[in-house]
Every structure is written in C-alpha cells, then in structure tokens.
Amino acid sequence: ECHGYKVARMKCYEKSETFHYLYMKEHSVREICEEKPSDRTLFILGTPPFVTEDSYKSLFSKFGTVEQVYFHPAPCATAPSKNKSKFFVDYPEVKGYKVAYIVFENESSVHNVMNLEPDEILILYSKENSEVTGIAKWCNEYNSKLMEVEELQKDIDDFMAEYDKKEEEQVKKEKEEMEPDEEGWIKVTKKGRRPGFARKESVHNRIMKKEDEKKKKKQLLNFYRFQIRESKMNQLVKLREKFEEDKKKIALLKQSRKFRPF
C-alpha cells in the first residue's frame, strides 16, 4: 500500500515485460452522486492513455459485474457530461493519463479488488479481448471521424426541431405572463412594450465599472474610533509641517527687507 492506496501491477499482454502501476481505493466522498455509489465504486489513479472503458470492463469483470466506467482528467465527485451529438462535440475525450471510476453491481466486487494478492498481475488484453494497435488503430480513428451526410443532416434537423420547440414554449410563456390574472393584475417583466437593446459585454463591463466607482465614493470614512484618531493625528502632522514652512518663508522675507547701504 502507498498513502492509503492499494498498488496493483498491470501489463498489456501476458508476454509484456513492462508494468504499469495502478493506485486503487474505495470511492468515498461527501458529495452524493447516484452514478457513483460510494459502496460499489472503485477509484483508480494512474490510468494509462491507451486504456478504454471496454478494456477496463473486461479487466475488472473477473472481480464482479461492471456496470459503468467513468474517466476524468482529475478526481471528480460527479459523473462526466455526455455529448448529445456525434458530430458536434461539447465535451472532448479525456486524453493522457487519467483517473477512473469503476462502478460494480455488488459491493463485494470492490472488496475483492482491494484484497488482491500482492504477487498477482493484472493482464489488460487477452486473446478474447485484443486491442487494435498501430496503423490499424489510426485507420479506425480516421474512418470514425468521416461524416455521413444523412446522419449529419438528421442530427442538425433534430437540433433545430428541439430549438424551435424551446422558442415556442418561451413565446407562449411570455404571452401567458402578459395576460391579466383572476384579480385583473398583470405581471410586469423586463420585456415590455419597449424592451430596448440587448447589452453587449463591453457595455456591461463599463456600467459595472461605474457602479464600482460609485460604491467606493459611498464607502464610510472615519467610521471607527481608531480611524477618527488616525485622521486627527494626520491632520495635526500636516498643520505642523505647514507651520514650519510658513516660518521659513517669513524668515526669508525679513532677510530680504534689510537695508544694506554698502
């Protein structure tokens, strides 16, 4: 063990000579997440970049049935956001070394992993579950990025249909708000007869800057006793300095007025 983590050795194939070290422990956080139940979730640090969800499911299936595998760039209590569209990606795929959350069907599966023998080595790929590598992998990735025109058009049509539906619901809601209720009252909103122009970011920043300046001017000065004492002391120091300067000026004037016949 290392700092509370169970350390397990993993290698890609049976014949591989190099190892990858996985740091595992039971997932336990204060925030409750339905997708990651604390009693059935295994947290793993040091997941290599080439590991996929399917390969982890196959690897940990010998400890129990795996329901879900989540990847994150850093530890996170919530489930990762999923992309609604295949072509328009809002949440890019996690690349590089990452953390993983393995959600099992039963609690006992997590205990089985944590009770792993120190000498046991986890084999990521087997004959039944081989991974495509090299040029074949690059070709598959390239082919997967090619867009089918019909699928793309269907995705766009679905998005626009959902957008139009939301706009219709918004317009309907605004109309209902402008209608008088049972007592004859009408709810006043920011969108009246003359809603005006939408604020740009630059205009908004300028307005907020002016508001901050106004707040600074309105701040209470000399509110506390120590502030009053300090202000009085500073005022006395300034008066003394001014008095000394005036004395020097008067002395210079007196010297300049002396009568000098020679």
TrEMBL record:
Q: Which Gene3D superfamilies does the UniProt entry name for this protein?
A: 3.30.70.330, 6.10.250.1770
Q: Which GO terms describe its molecular function?
A: RNA binding
Which UniProt keywords are given for this protein, alphabetically ordered?
A: Coiled coil, RNA-binding
Q: Alphabetically, which GO biological process terms does the record hold? A: ribosomal small subunit assembly; rRNA processing
Q: Name one Pfam family in it.
A: RRP7
Q: Give every RRM domain span.
A: 40-128
PROSITE patterns annotated for this entry? Answer: RRM
Coiled coil, from the record: 142-176, 229-256
One GO cellular component this record assigns the protein to is:
CURI complex
- Family note: Belongs to the RRP7 family.
**The protein's name in its UniProt record:** Hipothetical protein
This protein's species is Panstrongylus megistus
